[in-house]
Amino acid sequence: MQRFAFITFAVAAVGASASVAAATDLTLTGTIGSPQGAPYDVFASDVALANQGTLVVGIRGADTVAPSAGSVEIFASTDEGWDRVARPSFAGLAAGDQLGESVAAYGDWFAAGAPRHDARGSDAGAVMLARRSGGVWSHAATLLPPAGAGAHFGASVAMTAERLAIGAPRAAGGGFVDVYVRVGDAWTFETRIANPTPSAANRFGESVALGTDASGVPLLAIGDPADDAVLTDAGSARVYGFAAGARSERAVLTASSTSDRVFFGQSVAVASGVVAVGAYAAAGGSAKAPVEEAGAVEVFVADGAAWSRVAVLTSPEAAAYGSFGWDIALESQVTRSGVVWTMLVGEPGATSESGHAQAGRVHCLRTSAPASWTSIARARMDPASSQAVFGAACAIADGVSVFAAPGASVSGSPQGLAASLDLSTDCDENGVPDAIDIANGAPDSDGDGVLDACEPQFDVPSVYATIQAAIDAVPAGTARTITVAPGIYNEAFALNGKNVVVRGVADGTT
């Protein structure tokens, strides 16, 4: 195993709010990169989480088998960060295939797009499937499109336990999406969804996302950012349902903007009946002070058979060409109080506070009511790197989030990096992930990522009868404070090498 971590990222912790808002930056350390990195690898071209502890990273510019053939690396989560554990080989790769431009993963499987693979024609594309068996990742299958040059099959991929969606946005007619289902260890073709409004200028399948509606019925969202049906390149997104072995179109979504070239559908995400669609070139800011091509994300929910737009989100620091919404990751979790959604929104074109162009940033939002989102954090590179495009891709699984910066510099050359932030725990149930609370100054004296307020208490005599008993109970390798209530304690005690502070409670004599 090899670890690669040396650049600092910053997080802006944000208090409760009804809308996206900025706050003071706080530091968070730890990055993910390739030990075999080389200039122009474009490490983290795309990222996917198979689960909390398994990260799949696409490297479309890697020269492993031939120039720009591409590659994929697998990382495993440890107590100290992410360790690279595999770089699988794939049969049939050739120069310029750009494997890893897109990646998707679930459990013991991942899919990687090679949209410039030539087996079915120049740049027709392909998708390579890999499976983990006995702890080893290996090439399991190659999926190919029908013959036809320039389709870019594999430009986008999405995966769940039982279904795989593959976009071919440059195919004749304006693109298509192929859907496969998994039966045992094999993926079988299920259906092809052709562009419902054929046009050579469209890019149906530029983005795909799989999820469910509120009742658990599988959904597939497909973005077509170049759809001209409303205005030139205004874009659209379509939602399909899969029930009882049949596919049905559930919704046709369009942008709230009345402008052309907003590219609505560049990104899509689905979770528990919520669909989010990115329009990276939409105007941001306010109606009185719009910002050109700052970007937006529009949120839709099912209302019976119809879908309603319930929110339009823009960057709190809207800047021209910031591209807020270039990529989105969305997941839902069931809590004691109901369903909570967490969304990551990339803004890769944003200029840093120090003036570095296209340094980028990522916004983390959360809600229990999709019409109103609260920003809980903002992540950025520190020090900033021009053209890092931090936020060009992002992923989330069970609260663990990963952000990509495929243009970030390493040792002076552009190679690409990624960063991770654990948003999975909220031990004090205050609505803010523990990682953000700690970044915002909440005590974590032993640095284990758990708030001191959530750690076992070592109070004397309410929890332990004697000071020595409390000291003995402190786990080795942790830092704890033992609080002693007012009173007289006839004992001698020894710290015995423990990292503890023994302190009397205020306003009393001990």
Features:
510 residues; mainly beta; 6-stranded antiparallel beta sheet; 5-stranded antiparallel beta sheet; 2 helices
Shape: globular
Mean pLDDT: 88
- List the uncertain runs: 1-29
Strand content: over 45%
What is the radius of gyration computed over CA atoms, rounded to a whole number of angstroms?
Answer: 25 Å
Largest sheet: 6 strands, antiparallel
Number of helices: 2
Helix content: under 10%
Overall SS class? mainly beta
**How many DSSP E strands?**
37
Terminal Cα span: 51 Å
> How are the strands of the biggest sheet laid out side by side?
3-2-29-28-27-26
In short:
The chain has helices at 434-439, 467-473; strands at residues 2-3, 8-13, 25-29, 43-51, 54-59, 71-78, 81-86, 102-106, 109-114, 126-133, 136-143, 156-159, 163-168, 176-183, 186-194, 207-212, 218-224, 236-243, 246-253, 264-271, 274-279, 284-285, 290-291, 296-303, 306-313, 328-335, 338-347, 361-369, 372-382, 393-397, 400-405, 409-410, 413-414, 417-422, 459-460, 479-484, 499-504.
Describe this structure in words.
The structure is a single chain. This protein has helices spanning 434-439, 467-473; strands spanning 2-3, 8-13, 25-29, 43-51, 54-59, 71-78, 81-86, 102-106, 109-114, 126-133, 136-143, 156-159, 163-168, 176-183, 186-194, 207-212, 218-224, 236-243, 246-253, 264-271, 274-279, 284-285, 290-291, 296-303, 306-313, 328-335, 338-347, 361-369, 372-382, 393-397, 400-405, 409-410, 413-414, 417-422, 459-460, 479-484, 499-504. By secondary structure, the protein is an all-beta fold. The strands form ten sheets. The protein has a six-stranded antiparallel beta sheet. A five-stranded antiparallel beta sheet has the order 1-7-6-5-4, with no helix packed on it. Strand 24 and strand 25 form a beta hairpin. The chain is globular. The termini are far apart. Mean pLDDT is 88; it is low at 1-29.
